[in-house]
Amino acid sequence: MRQHVQTAKNRLYLASLSMALLFVVSLLLGSVPAYAAGDDEAALAEQSKEAFLQLQTGKRIAGEERSYETPEQPTVYLTFDDGPSKLTDQVLDILDEKGVKATFFAIGVQAKEYPKQLKRIVDSGHALGNHTYNHVYNELYSDFQTFWDQVQKTENIFDELVGVRPQLVRAPGGTATNFDAYYYYLMDQAGYMMEDWNVDSGDSKRAGVPASEIWQTVKASPLSHEINILFHDGTGHDNTVKVLPQVIDYYRNLGYSFATLTTKVKPKQFGLSKIKWNRGMSLTHFTKLYGETKAYAAEHSQPGLVEETPAPPKEEPIKVIAMQSEEESTVPLNIQLPGQEGFAFDPTLYRMHANRIELPLRTLVEKIGGQVAWQPDTKTATAHYGIYDIAYHLQTRSMELFKLGQPLATYAMADMDMRNNQIIVPLRKTIDSLGGRIMSARIESDRREVALSLRPYYFYNEPADSILQNSLFALVN
């Protein structure tokens, strides 16, 4: 089978090369020769030429549209580069102890040296990504052919050792100043997904970065709904192992969950910037590379990927129809109250984010008949409704729930936000915390309606056990 595929690749390459030469001649002579190859080969050559001319402008070409899923709960994707090594088992022990899954971007030469660790990564349910074969920058970024060959070589090693061909690839040093539009386009044509990061732990700034410095770098990094954090499990990163439990506890206490990267997670990618390598690209060379990546995609239409172990089912989010994961609102949000007059939010007062409705705390609470007080010295907003109070602490990104002045629970809200001097809160979580519930929701492009059920004030003299039994306190961060 592999011999037949290789023969097909050779034929495709020769045909593509022939067509590329014909196009070069046509450009020089100002004429387009008649196709001597078959229709498929001619079409491939034409596609290659069109792509090449577009990429010459230096701008990326949008690849095939992918569908991504935004987690409802704030999520951290721990990623480890440059392994496996003698440290990888220690990292895996910590992850096992904490019940956390991570993603390992492994180097081919390291995988050959530490096959048992590579197998443990996969067998433990972690995700495996490709980090090229030898991590040598001046080889990888001198020409795409070298980068491509190293990715292929590493993938074959993974397949032989653990039976996995990852679609996720991380460029050594990241794509910034290393990748140009050609690199991105050809990797995309082959079906790969490039992964950078949005939090750098700083554990590889220099040799022997202290654990305390790594910790301070992580703690000072901005919080976002999805965090792809860069660590290293290669030789010399003992301090990364030391600080890892503290980092996991830090994000967990802020309300984050942990997951592996998959093709359903929108990748973090750096924007194109001026490359620091002296390299060029000719039409002839591009056509050859284009043929190789297309042949690979045809042969590996569904490369293997270790997926995260499915999490336990959680409360269903509001069903959203024809909505992107985050968008500014364009139509009013109508709130319906059974037996009462409802109200509406102007499109500028709310937004859709991570499959949920987010809006200003004060506006929401006051519209349902409650009050909100702001304490500027502690940056705390306290919402009061009936027998319930919710204290939102912006500095610690936490929320305290009280009933009749007595504390019930404290919850982390990692993605607590402030816009236009108002704390922005998720609708469902806030209504649940105030003893109500969302009965139904209809979110469409031209119609947005949510029906709430709120306990009237005169019911608050019921026994406390009855109130607790009939109210929703489960918060999904």
Structure characterization notes:
The structure is a single chain. With 477 residues, the protein is of the alpha/beta class. The chain folds into three domains: 2-55; 75-270 and 280-299, Alpha-Beta Barrel (TIM Barrel), CATH 3.20.20; 326-470, 2-Layer Sandwich (Copper Amine Oxidase, Chain A, domain 1). Helices cover 35% and strands 22% of the residues. The chain is built from 14 helices and 22 strands. The protein has helices at 2-29, 39-55, 88-98, 108-113, 115-123, 137-140, 144-162, 181-189, 211-220, 238-253, 283-299, 361-367, 427-433, 464-470, and strands at 75-81, 103-106, 127-130, 168-169, 193-194, 199-200, 226-232, 257-258, 326-328, 333-337, 340-345, 351-353, 356-360, 371-375, 380-385, 388-393, 398-403, 406-412, 417-419, 422-426, 437-443, 448-453. The strands form five sheets. Strands 1, 2, 3, 6, 7 and 8 form a six-stranded parallel sheet that branches. A five-stranded antiparallel sheet has the order 9-12-13-20-19. α1 packs antiparallel against α11. The longest helix is centred in the N-terminal third of the chain and has 28 residues, at 2-29. It is globular, with a radius of gyration of 27 Å. Mean pLDDT is 82; it is low at 1-9, 12-39, 302-326 and 457-477. Residues 1-36 form the signal peptide. InterPro entries: Cu_amine_oxidase-like_N, Glyco_hydro/deAcase_b/a-brl, Mao_N_sf, NODB_dom, Polysacc_deacetylase_ArnD. Keywords: Signal.
